[in-house]
Sequence to fold (293 residues):
Amino acid sequence: MVSDVLPISRFLRITLVSQNALRLATFLERALGFHRLQHAPSGAPLCGSANGAGGRAFSTTLSLGQQQLELLQFASAGKPYPQDTRSSDLLFQHAAIVVSDMDEAFRQLSAVAGWTAISRNGPQALPEKSGGVTAFKFRDPEGHPFELLAFPPAERPAQWKQANSQSPFLGIDHSAISVADTGVSVAFYEALGLSVSGGSVNTGIEQGRLDALPNPRVTVTALSAGVTAPHLELLCYQQCGTPVPGISPVRDNDVAATRTVWQPQVANRPGDTERPSRILLDPDGHRVLITRF
Fold:
């Protein structure tokens, strides 16, 4: 239940489940400029959701700028990422990486084998009503979706203007999840302490190429916990006014069981600092881990 969870104070990291974390880490280093920090037994809860899976796991932690990405490899491997998922399916969850130069970032990504494109015809420059960004979506070798994101120079948020990097890959801007009902999802995350910090309605040819969908209409809602990045984005796709149905739930050790990891606020009530970490499922089955580490 959300009511007995301490409010969120900070977005800690995104956790991807991997069937071969060290191999995937090597790809992320070469293709996207990540830096490996450690490989050790996981210290965070491995399961505890409605679709848990027992067993030990190793955690490989990487950094990109000031943000972290964790690869979690279970001793008992789950199912691979479903190959037939679309950007609008409720299972879909991507990590968006801000780049300073889309051409150079795309060139570096293209020089590394193993990934597959989601977007058609390369990076897409979206119209101003959709934020005016240039974006490209793809899957890593295990199927996890990623997005490269370049802001117009004059509109790049302050955090990314100040990023000091010799690489075109600056850091993780957000994790985006597909949802069936924006209002229901906003209510869930607001109860955890997040606040709506922005949004748009994206349509048009460029959005269709970006998502590889015919005539998409997607309501984008940004949610944050005090800082703009990283943050969470809700993507509500509609076809003829009807949300696109999702895919059956996955277990914690399946490759598609991505988590957002958040740090709770420290309250002054007795016992609050000893509250255990919690894994929650949001209204569409996305995993939310609230932990102090």
